[in-house]
Amino acid sequence: MEVAETIGESHGRSDSFSDLVWAHFLQQRALHREAASPNAQIRAAAGLTEESEIYYDVLARFQASHGLIIASMFGARRALGVAVTEREDRRSFITRLRATPQPVHELHRSMPWSVGVPRELDAALHEGDVLAIQAAAVLRRAPARAVVMRVFAAQSYLLETIDRGLYESEEVAAESADDESLG
Questions:
Q1: In whole angstroms, what separates CA 81 from the centre of its chain?
Q2: Greater model confidence, 164 or 41
């Protein structure tokens, strides 16, 4: 299966953050694979890989739709990520008439269901999503950006913990306790 078939094309050239995260993951995997090959320097001089071209295409579509990415964190071992975008407020006619347009800051997060995080981590990530949405809806300018960036920092930390596998799910902890009691 080609890389292009797995990203966006099945979704009609989607501009979703999930597609961006998946494209980034595949690009990084391809870059690491090529770096390990004996002809890595020759290939690097030849230009971008197919995965890189697709990643930059998905990135351009995402930013055209959602605004400029001002902060991001992508997983190194798993296809997960979080980002903050900034764009002009396009919600109403009145906001377009203002002399100084107000930026809107949005938090985007993607994580595959197959990761299987503990409920506490999942709940914390969800609460962060809700807080970022509420902050963007109620607050403006610097206060909204400050709240969204704090949520981004917290979610980056949690996603890095998930990516590195530094958490222990309840099932694994229960199995470890059973194994220790038997031994």
A1: 2
A2: 164
